[in-house]
Structures are given as structure tokens and as C-alpha cells.
Amino acid sequence: MTQPIRPVSRAALQLGPRLPRRVFLERALRAGTLGAAALWTPGVLADELFVTPSGRSLEGPFYPDTMPLDTDNDLLIVNDAITPAVGEVTHLYGAVTTRAGTPLRNAFVEIWQCDTNKSYRHADGVNPNEPPDSNFQGYGRFLTNVRGEYYFRTIKPVPYIIGDVFRTPHIHFAVSRNGKRVFTSQMLINGHPDNARDRLTARILDPLAKETILVDFNPLPGSKIGELTAHFDIVLGQTVEELDDGTLSWGLGHPETGRDSG
Q: Within 10 A of 2 (CB to CB), how many other CB atoms are there?
């Protein structure tokens, strides 16, 4: 039986804020965080993909309108730059499966979020009161392995107000197959006090559905710089998702325009 990705110790990851990307990825692979052989092994996705949404959420318009120079799964370092992004370093991982437990292999998982200064990589999602963190990638993508697993190194999300819209801390997620998006949602911090006044969370009336997007952020054992881990499994047909009747196009499932803020 294959084992799922588990949080590993700081010593096993051997990650540092100035670690070059190539070394970071190689060490993560050796530590078992990523499946080296499975990561780029070609193959068809699982045939079982019957999505029955259990809830509805908003994606928001802040999918990057201009892609960063770097789009890999380490959002803290842009093109092996020396200076990392500001924020609480978070190792974000999980698996994408169907309700029957079938993993989605070779599926693109995308994430995007605002930086510590509350700005997205989108013209309409920039905080006018603080300059954006130019060292934060803001967007990343990862190709799932044979077990449907993904991994990102990013920052713990922060709350923000853009215009008159307040949002609790969250990370946007999307899953695409064959260049078309099949799942979109947002991951929230479990127990965060701002969740109670967040309009997206308020729309999810079913408490069991709401739990599917609430994620614990826990200290990484052995970390001397306060790193965190966050485990978010996506179950198609069970995890709260956005319902989309439009055409999925523009690269890796770029969303249609004209959505609500968020």
C-alpha cells in the first residue's frame, strides 16, 4: 500500500530561506515530500470523475492577469533570487481524489493568494496603501504524482480589504485536466477569528460542507524559523467548490471574467 505525503521534520527537508530552487526540490524529493519518478511520468488521469458539488463558493477575479516570471511550486523564491518572500513559511500539501478514493494523477493543481502586504498579482487586487512584495511569486502550479499528491511552499495567508470587500485569510485552488478546469475553491484557516465575518464562509450553510475547506496550520517539527504545515485534501464531489457553467479556457483552466470579488 502506498503511503500518503506526511509532514516531515525540518532536518529532513533541510530548507532555508536562501536555499536555491534546484537544491530545494532535490532535497524535498529525497525527503519523500514529492514523488520523483511519478511527478513527470506520463499517463492518463483516472477515468472516474463524477463531480457532484456539495457547496458553492466564489473564486474571485484575482487569478493572475500577468503571470509571474516563475510559476513553480515554491512561491517564496522567484527564479532562484537571494531574497525570499516575507511571511510565515508554510509547507502546503495534500492529494486530489474522487469520492471513491481514486487519485487524479498528472492533474495540474494551481494556487494563488495575496502577499503579506495584501496584494495579488492582478491589477484589481493591489493594496494601494503598501507596495507589493516583489519577492513573492503569488501563484504556483504542480503536477500531481501517481497518488494524486501535490506540494507547495508558500506563506500563511493574511486577511485583506479590497474596495469595500473584506476577506478572511484564504488560498485559491484550482485543478485542471487537459487544460480545462474541473475544480475551483478556496482554502481557509481553521479557527481563524475572521472566518465568522467572511461573506464567502457565511454562504456555506452546511457545517459539514464548510469543514471541507477549513485547514489546520501546525508548526513544522524541528523548524527554527517558525515554519508551518497545512494538509488540504481535495475530494471531487465532496470538497466545497465553485460551480461554473462557462467555458474553461486560457491556459491551465483560466477562469472566466465577471465574477464576484474575493
A: 10
